[in-house]
Amino acid sequence: MIGIFHVFMWYFLLILYMGQIRGVFGTYEPITYKTGCSLWGIIFIIAGVSIIRATRHPTQGMITCALTTNIFCIIIAIIASVLTTIELSSFNSVSYRNYGQAKLGREVSRVLLISYPLEFSIALTYSIFGCIDLVSIYLLSGKSRDADF
């Protein structure tokens, strides 16, 4: 659900920033808009789907896929948090025509900044439990735990 929220916020920002009028100081195009940072919510959606599939059919391959996508989500959430913090820490002056749009876009970025740690914590939790599931599948499979050194 967080991924769907991020994709909708990306669409909102797309409509918001495309409607800017070229002013004296230019248009407001933050780094998160240029990189499509909130569009990365698609990765969160894919991770959620892989978790559901791994829960319904808990094979080693499905759990590994879910674990991999969750680790990727952790990395994405950290990068998105850093980019959003950089965006919010600097605010270059924009034309007064675009000031309202820039201010609204920054508020959306603040809301997204709150949701990135939530996504990080959810992905980290599922990654930990995914590792536990992999270990339990390994132990239940009856493979020898002896290692040749």
TrEMBL record:
Main localization category: membrane
Domain of life where this protein originates: Eukaryota
InterPro entries assigned: CD20-like
GO cellular component terms, A-Z: membrane
Compartments, record wording: Membrane
Residues that span the membrane, as ranges: 7-25, 31-52, 64-86, 120-140
Pfam families: CD20
Membrane topology: Multi-pass membrane protein
Keyword Transmembrane helix: yes
Mitochondrion among keywords: no
Keyword vocabulary terms for this entry: Membrane, Transmembrane, Transmembrane helix
Name of protein: Membrane spanning 4-domains A13
